[in-house]
Design a protein that fits this description.
The complex is a heterodimer of chains A (324) and B (171). Chain A is of the alpha/beta class and 324 residues long. Chain A is built from 10 helices and 19 strands. In chain B, helix 3 packs antiparallel against helix 4. The chains are: A alpha/beta (324), B mainly alpha (171).
Chain lengths: 324, 171
């Protein structure tokens, strides 16, 4: 919580401090110029009033002014806007603790490339939560004959796919009684998985993990295969043609893959022209589908033939109980 | 015996004052040179590593010198995120720097101007701005050096002359 408060303008900080929010429940803080201060807390959106109370009444909400945005930006950038040009081009900054701050304002374009951003007026502070053990339920299903299977996590945005991926990386790297620890290479394009701050991962990714921070996925996967000899490569939010090509290269090199993709179901992925081909050709052996609108809830785990491994059928559950 | 000792003391004291005035000019030049080197360092680091101001001020503080405490205090203040702006910190800390009184009004204006133009622009503009301030500082240093030779000599001569004059008057 300290890392979040530190980067907020003094006034916003003091108001939020009065809120006494529980950190694990806080998901998002939104600052928009001349608009009410908003937080997403325990899955619900609230305005914050002057006294630090959470309310649904917009009229009583604290209005964020340009001064607060400017001050927050100074703190986020350590008074060094020039040091974050690349981040502004991408539209977000990752701060200590792995929290991601989305920024929006006026984009400056040079020819057809984003050059920088000015008049930053909208900030979205997304609070990262590392949930140790959140993959315990699915992990055993990703192992076959003590070998990790190529796995694709399918989830709509903001449903916990990155958190699940992070914990799977940790378990694979540390090793469990289902499989021994594996060397995991992570291509962390958005610095969300390891949340590296000055080169040091802020999240626990396990002792056998190498992190390639702020590196494009396509190049990063190839680089890791060539340089770090990983047994598993993990990437977040795949989708481009380059990503698919790199994944094929990785899998053909005998390296296992753990990836996430945006979608609601496996059908969504099959309908994607590039990624659909990989699904049809059974490149992935396991699919984890997360529930839409419910953070971190697993809808299903299935294998390449579409056999549902989780949730188990009632009969199987009963027989397991009997065996116990 | 006592009289001659008194005369010697007066002459030495006045010469010392003359020397002190000359030394102030020298300190001013040394301070401006040190600041110009700091700007050169900032330019290089921003261009090469793109490090943030706090990190760079820490590195500058490690070098010491007249502005050593200034850089150290600045990095400490900026880390506090206390609601006070960069420029306010900059001005306040500059006024508390050792040897601040040796700087002229025009020097301070330039140094305040540097503070107002650090950290709030994109890299290319930042580097360009630093370069402009460096050039202005170099110009000031050149003028100060030219003035120094004459002024130092005058200050010492005036000091000694006043000492002799006072001794003659008291005799």
């Amino acid at each position: 919580m300290e890392e979040i408060y530190r980067i907020l303008a003094l006034k916003v900080r003091s108001i939020l401090f009065k809120c006494q929010m529980e950190f694990p429940m806080l998901q998002e803080i939104r600052l928009r110029i001349d608009a009410p201060l908003l937080v997403r807390y325990a899955g619900e959106e609230y305005f914050v009033d002057q006294e630090g109370g959470l309310t649904r009444d917009e009229e009583n909400a604290f209005l964020v002014r340009s001064r607060e945005i400017r001050e927050t930006m100074e703190y986020i950038s350590n008074y060094s806007m020039y040091a974050f040009e690349e981040e502004f081009k991408r539209g977000y900054i990752t701060i200590r603790g792995g929290h991601r701050i989305g920024v929006a304002g006026k984009m400056i374009w040079e020819r057809q490339d984003a050059k920088n951003m000015k008049h930053i007026s909208f900030l979205n502070i997304r609070i990262a939560h590392q949930v140790i053990g959140c993959s315990d339920e699915v992990f055993p299903y990703l192992i076959e004959n003590q070998e990790f299977c190529n796995t694709l996590i399918i989830s709509p945005p903001c449903c916990g796919k990155t958190t699940l991926l992070r914990d799977l990386i940790r378990q694979l790297s540390e090793g469990t009684h289902f499989c021994r620890g594996l060397t995991v290479g992570v291509v962390d394009e958005r610095s969300e998985l390891g949340a590296c701050y000055q080169g040091k991962p802020q999240n626990d990714l396990g002792c056998r993990t190498d992190v390639l921070d702020a590196c494009p996925k396509t190049e990063g996967m190839m680089m890791l295969v060539r340089s770090m000899a990983p047994q598993v490569i993990a990437v977040d939010e795949i989708g481009s043609a380059g990503d698919v090509e790199a994944m094929e290269y990785v899998m053909n090199c005998g390296v296992r893959l753990l990836a996430t993709v945006h979608g609601n179901s496996i059908e969504d992925i099959i309908n994607k022209p590039l990624l659909g081909r990989l699904v049809k050709e059974c490149f992935f052996k396991r699919y984890i589908v997360l529930m839409p609108n419910e953070i971190g809830k697993i809808a299903t785990v299935m294998d390449e033939r579409g056999t549902i491994l989780l949730p188990k059928r009632k009969q199987e559950k009963a027989s397991e109980k009997k065996a116990c | 015996m006592l009289k001659s000792l008194g005369i010697c003391l007066i002459v030495l004291g006045c010469s010392g004052l003359g020397w002190y005035a000359a030394e102030r000019y020298a300190i001013r030049i040394r301070m401006l040179c040190e600041f110009e080197q700091a700007l050169q360092f900032l330019y290089g680091e921003i261009e090469y590593s793109g490090s943030d101001m706090i990190e760079l001020f820490d590195k500058l503080a490690f070098r010491g010198g007249y502005f050593g405490t200034f850089w150290l205090q600045m990095s400490g203040n900026l880390r506090r995120h206390d609601g006070i702006g960069f420029l306010e910190h900059w001005k306040r800390e500059l006024q508390q720097t050792d040897g601040y009184h040796n700087l002229k009004e025009e020097d301070l204006e330039l140094l305040f101007g540097i503070g107002a133009n650090l950290g709030n622009m994109d890299r290319q503009t930042q580097l360009h701005t630093i370069q402009i301030f460096q050039e202005r500082l170099r110009g000031m240093i050149d003028v100060a050096r030219k003035e120094y030779k004459g002024r130092a000599k005058v200050s010492c001569v005036v000091g000694i002359t006043i000492g002799i004059f006072l001794s003659l008057l008291l005799m």
